[in-house]
């Protein structure tokens, strides 16, 4: 069976060893492939699954994609603990080591430029949600007797108007809070990226997402950044703030993590 090369990230040479039992996509351990002043972190994957046609088919399989993405991220997380990786997009595959080196040669200056900008920095994610309000314990399920119908209808409409106003107030408060928080965190971080709000149906998160942002922060300032988020979210009743990280700087790598075509 022919083995292809799956590339996780490009980084500068590093001395710290990765975990001895670390495995990547398709269960193979990652290794370092050096070219000039760069290192590509790669592992072998079977051609039967990762050649262009089967890979495209697999990317439509949610279960396969979940397992593969988890293995990919596991390697990126391990790299982030010991160095500053420039993560490549999921499914970056080449025919052999020579193909990987050719890619590194062609893009060497771009890789070096981005790695210089990211050196010693990590990404933190911050999301703000409007918490869902509990539904009314009792809603009219059937019309009352005719003599009470008008009054019942007016009461129902009044309650609905009050609920709508309350929801609008919470939404406005959350939007204003999210704007202030983003301004504060952007001033602290070196760079910031706003992503589209998450769809609750797809993400499974409760509440409505009003801020989905990423911040590039020096690793040495991460503790202070976390404390800043904690202080800010204490003043946000009815609003949930989620902080994730530290991650490799996916949101700040430009085209390297976003290309859609399978490289050869």
Describe the structure concisely.
Residues 137-151 have a biased composition (Low complexity). It contains eight helices and nine strands.
Any descriptors?
264 residues; alpha+beta; Alpha-Beta Plaits; 2 domains; five-stranded antiparallel beta sheet; four-stranded antiparallel beta sheet; 42% helix; globular; disordered C terminus; GvpL/GvpF family gas vesicle protein; gas vesicle; GvpL/GvpF
Could you describe the 3D structure shown?
This protein is of the alpha+beta class and about 260 residues long. The chain folds into two domains: about 5-120, no CATH class; about 120-135 and about 175-250, Ribosomal protein S10 (Alpha-Beta Plaits, 2-Layer Sandwich), CATH 3.30.70. Helices cover about 40% and strands about 25% of the residues. The chain has helices spanning about 45-50, 50-60, 60-80, 95-105, 110-120, 145-190, 200-205, 220-235; strands at about 5-10, 30-35, 40-45, 85, 95, 120-130, 190-195, 210-220, 240-245. The strands form two sheets. Strands 1, 2, 3, 4 and 5 form a five-stranded antiparallel β-sheet that branches. It has a four-stranded antiparallel β-sheet with strand order 7-8-6-9, covered by helices on one side. Strand 2 and strand 3 form a beta hairpin. The radius of gyration is 25 Å and the shape is globular. Mean pLDDT is about 85; it is low at about 135-140 and about 260-264.
Distance between the termini: 18 Å
Summing up helix and strand content along with how strands pair, one would put the structural category as: alpha+beta
What is the N-to-C order of secondary-structure elements (H for helix, E for strand)? EEEHHHEEHHEHEHEHE
Helicity range? 40-55%
* Beta-strand segment tally: 9
The tally of structural domains comes to 2
Q: Per the principal axes of the C-alpha atoms, what is the gross shape?
A: globular
Low-confidence stretches: 134-142, 259-264
Radius of gyration: 25 Å
Number of helices: 8
Largest sheet: 5 strands, antiparallel
Assembly level: single chain
Overall pLDDT level: 85
What percent of residues are in strands? 15-25%
């Amino acid at each position: 069976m022919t083995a292809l090369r799956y590339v996780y990230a490009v980084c500068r040479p590093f001395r710290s060893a990765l975990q001895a039992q670390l495995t990547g996509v398709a269960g193979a351990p990652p290794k370092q492939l050096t070219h000039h002043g760069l290192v590509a972190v790669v592992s072998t994957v079977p051609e039967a699954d990762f050649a262009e046609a089967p890979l495209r088919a697999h990317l439509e399989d949610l279960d396969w994609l979940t397992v593969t993405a988890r293995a990919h991220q596991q390697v990126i997380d391990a790299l982030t603990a010991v160095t500053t990786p420039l993560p490549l997009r999921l499914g970056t595959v080449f025919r052999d080591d020579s193909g990987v080196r050719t890619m590194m040669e062609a893009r060497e200056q771009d890789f070096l430029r981005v790695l210089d900008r990211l050196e010693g920095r990590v990404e933190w994610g911050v999301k703000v949600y409007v918490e869902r309000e509990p539904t009314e314990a009792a809603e009219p399920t059937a019309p009352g007797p005719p003599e009470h119908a008008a009054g019942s209808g007016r009461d129902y409409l009044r309650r609905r108007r009050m609920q709508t106003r309350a929801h609008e107030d919470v939404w406005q408060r959350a939007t204003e809070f999210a704007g202030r928080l983003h301004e504060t965190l952007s001033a602290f971080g070196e760079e910031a990226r706003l992503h589209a709000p998450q769809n609750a149906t797809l993400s499974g998160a409760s509440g409505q997402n009003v801020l989905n942002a990423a911040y590039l922060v020096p690793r040495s300032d991460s503790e202070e950044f976390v404390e800043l988020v904690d202080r800010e979210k204490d003043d946000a009743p009815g609003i949930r703030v989620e902080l994730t990280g530290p991650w490799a700087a996916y949101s700040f790598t430009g085209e390297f993590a976003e290309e859609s075509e399978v490289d050869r």
